[in-house]
Design a protein that fits this description.
Strand 5 and strand 6 form a beta hairpin. The two termini are about 25 Å apart. The chain has one domain: 7 Propeller (Methylamine Dehydrogenase, Chain H). It has a four-stranded antiparallel sheet, covered by helices on one side. It is mainly β and about 270 residues long.
Length: about 270
């Protein structure tokens, strides 16, 4: 499940504006899974075989950092240019407080694969992964608590538009919502074929308005939108022959979705479906 975040969307904006792509040299042949830019110039990429890359000049040059692991690293999130977290296979969670010069292997309390991580402030963060795993920290990663998700399905993405409201998505049409910072989660229903959907990424502009992308098991890709906090959803599978892997909103009107076989979708009208 390939997830591409802010850097790719920045490149997409550039592409659509200037009708060209700029190839960046990463310095590795390893599969790269996730990218995060805490500011315009400083970015981090993670991927296969414990790969962590860093740029301080908006991607012109990337330097390999020593992660201390060979595990597949699936997701990266920084709360500022120096402090960041990486999650991956086998429940690994890494933390740096010096811009990636050194990484500490935190005790996650699980051996489930973790595939997505996000923080709502410098201390409070969440990670999701296989078998409905949701972890929470309220002390900057020192300890992690397993939250009750209520689902056995693999979770693929988590996003919090504010401190209390969060959404986690996953396989078999799983969309979970919390309004109390993860204390409890509600399983939302999407469409008439919900259990046949694979949801791979979510992004919310605010607690009520957001997007989920993925596709139909064994079929086409789809984009779904809610404007009422997940009570109802518009959109179905069939917007693409290929799965969508990631969704990102640059503002309230402009939404990007990307996926297999170079698939790119963009809208200027608040994602009207």
């Amino acid at each position: 499940m390939r997830k591409i975040s802010l850097l790719v969307f920045m490149l997409l904006v550039s592409t659509l504006t200037f009708s060209q792509w700029t190839a960046l040299t990463s310095g590795t042949m390893n599969y790269l899974a996730s990218v995060h830019f805490p500011d315009a110039n400083t970015g981090y990429v993670v991927g296969d075989s414990g790969t962590i890359l860093k740029t301080i000049n908006a991607g012109t040059k990337w330097n390999a950092l020593t992660s201390g692991t060979q595990n597949y690293l699936a997701s990266v999130f920084f709360t500022n240019v120096d402090t960041g977290y990486v999650v991956g296979a086998g429940g690994i969670i890494l933390k740096t407080i010096n811009g990636g010069d050194a990484w500490t292997n935190l005790s996650s309390g699980t051996n489930k694969n973790l595939v997505s991580v996000c923080f709502t402030d410098r201390n409070t963060g969440y990670a999701v992964g296989d078998s409905g795993t949701i972890l929470e920290t309220i002390n900057g990663g020192t300890t992690w608590t397993v939250l009750s998700s209520g689902t056995p399905n693999d979770l693929t993405s988590i996003y919090f538009p504010d401190f209390n409201t969060g959404y986690a998505v996953g396989l078999y049409g799983t969309i979970l919502k919390t309004v109390n910072a993860g204390t409890s989660w509600t399983d939302l229903t999407v469409g008439s074929y919900g259990s046949s959907y694979v949801f791979l990424s979510d992004y919310f502009l605010n607690p009520d308005s957001g997007f989920v992308v993925g596709g139909f098991i064994g079929g086409s890709g789809g984009i779904w939108k809610t404007i009422d906090g997940g009570a109802t959803w518009s959109g179905e599978s069939g917007q693409s022959d290929f799965y969508f892997y990631s969704v990102f909103c640059t503002n309230a009107d402009t939404v990007f979705a990307i996926g297999e076989a170079g698939t790119v979708r963009k809208t200027y009208n608040e994602g009207a479906l």
